[in-house]
Amino acid sequence: MGKPKDGGISAIWDQNDTLVFCDLCIVEIELGNRPTTHFNKEGWNNLVVKFEEKTKRWNASRKTIDASDEWWDERLKPCMTSKQTGDKWLAELVGGHPVRFHNAFRMPKQIFFDLLENLEQNYGLQGSRRTASREVLAITLYILSHNETIRKATERFQHSSETASRYFSEGLRALLRLAEDIIVPQGGYFAMTPPEILQDARYMPFFKDCIGAIDEIHVDARIPVKKQVPYIGRHGTTTQNVMVACDFNMCFTFAMAGWEGSAHDSRIFNFAISNPTYNFPHPPRGNEVIIIINILFFPQYLFIKIVCRSCRKVLFGRRWLSTTKRVYKTICRYTVPSS
What we know:
InterPro entries: DUF8040, HARBI1-like, Myb/SANT-like_dom. By secondary structure, the protein is of the alpha/beta class. It has three domains: 62 residues, no CATH class; 97 residues, no CATH class; 144 residues, no CATH class. The chain has a five-stranded mixed beta sheet. A two-stranded antiparallel ribbon has the order 1-2. Helix 8 packs across helix 9. It starts with 14 loop residues before the first helix and ends with a helix.
């Protein structure tokens, strides 16, 4: 009865099965075979035997209910049958208007294919016999850029949930390997005053020792309902508080993601610089990094509230000190979000 399947997959009970089982449980309770909160051994054995007698569907060897042929036929029926498969949809976007492609993957076509080539050649991204590597990357970017679920990706790309989840994991691993190589200080990062400061009279000489900026950015996150409370940020939505550092070329030099949206900026910053595991790029003495957050002072880090050491000597005691601080704060705050 029913089609065999390795591992024993339980069919869902229908209403009749539930009523039969409940009636049998009541009988066993009245017979005293449920002395505490559980049935005793005799009670369970009676339930198994009587349920099989009543329904003729209990499989004693697998300890499950055998499904009917109709149930198996419904489960084995092909589901993803759309003619517009994921690769066909991707091909349509590649040949279509650039705005459509950008809306789907949050990047222009040329950057997508440059990224694809880099991941294939250097970071192990590959597809399979039926799925090209470009579709693997497309699935990954589609989920990441729109904060979508695997279920939505299965419908869009016409794959099973297992396949979509596997390709997403493969694409994500390749992107993480890429991130380890590019989110680092560039050559000569600590050696000289950045030209963006050196050639701008608004910053020189006040920021001549500054080499970058750090800020925390709240990024929307999809969190299970039972774990959402710590991730609810200041705007009432679930977010991650991501700390990032960048140089004045607006290239990221460090990133730490995963913290709850309610976590304080100073806690994340202190954790990052005090844990060698995360390889935070500490500036050498004599250099400073602008910190766009109002927290306690750490050596070698310049907090925008005090502007900078050199600037304090020039501006201290002047009436327009607070105004100048606001101007610098406005200018510098755009560095990280713009990156």
